[in-house]
Amino acid sequence: MIVWGPGVVGNALLREIAKKPELELVGVLAYSPDKDGQDVGEYLGLPATGMRMTTDQESMITADADCVLFCPNMSARVDLDSETTNIACRILESGKSMVTSIGWWYPSFHSQALADKLEAACQKGGSCLHATGVNPGWLYERIVTTLTGATTRIAHIKVQELADTRTIASADMVGGLGYGQDLSQKPWIENAGDRAYSETLAATCAILGVKLDRIESEKKYFVAREDIKLIPTTVRKGTRSGVNLLYYAIVEGRRFITLEEIWYTDLRDLPEGLLPGDYYTITIEGEPVSVRCKFELLASVEKNIEFLPGDLTTPAYYATAIPIIQAIPIVCGAKPGIVYSNTFANYVPDLRDFKSPLIVR
Description:
10 helices; Rossmann fold; 14 strands
């Protein structure tokens, strides 16, 4: 395995790969010059491994490996002619498969040319590409779609993600959310959200066999009532202190799926009826059965703790990394091309239209 980008997700990948003897780490591509040459274990605060990170992209593109776990900065552009897309295509053309959480969950939503370019790179190299993560990724394309298996008619699906961002230690992440900025400034999360959440909603509609009309969105923000001290910075009174994004998948002229992101630093900003914490809610209004689900991501349920001793990696980052790791045997064993998520069975308006790799006749 090669880990491309030892950031918050890449670090979680490295920690877990070190615990799985069936996975061999053969390279780590870093972007920061100060990481060049660092021992991977020492970088993570663990015993030295002898594996040193490099900033030499060419050496990693030509390296011998089965799979690249591709984790560039989430602010990276991943459209048709972007540097990130071109690098990904070179990796795929070199014969190495790729799993990523940066984008390409459903590239044809953005353009068929993008999907064709990625597919062509896979075919040239005999490799596979799969995009996953927690949200976008695992949450919608597997959990939500699986829960629709209890109903044959759906009126509406709503998913909410709540995150108490007071525990975020990454200055880049806090800055990306626009915390401490004037509301007139557009935060990075808007661009990332428009790309990623729109794409995962489109992918979910495709899995469910419904025709997407368009994606609509609303962006709302919370304002600090007083100075708020966070781990990497202080959010000044009157500046942005929280994010409330809503994305709607419009099907047959109505809101078929709603995704709401609520990232807060002040409990007073929570919408009425919602409890504090880090959790997800899923509501499927359907017939003959409707579904309501709430779940949390924790380091330990029995101990009710969010962090493991000596490890400040949030459960959300691990939940982004683990689906990447679990996809490795699939992308390394599938037919060359883009590999999309699927469930055994789920809601579709017409069962004759259900698509599955298991259906061969």
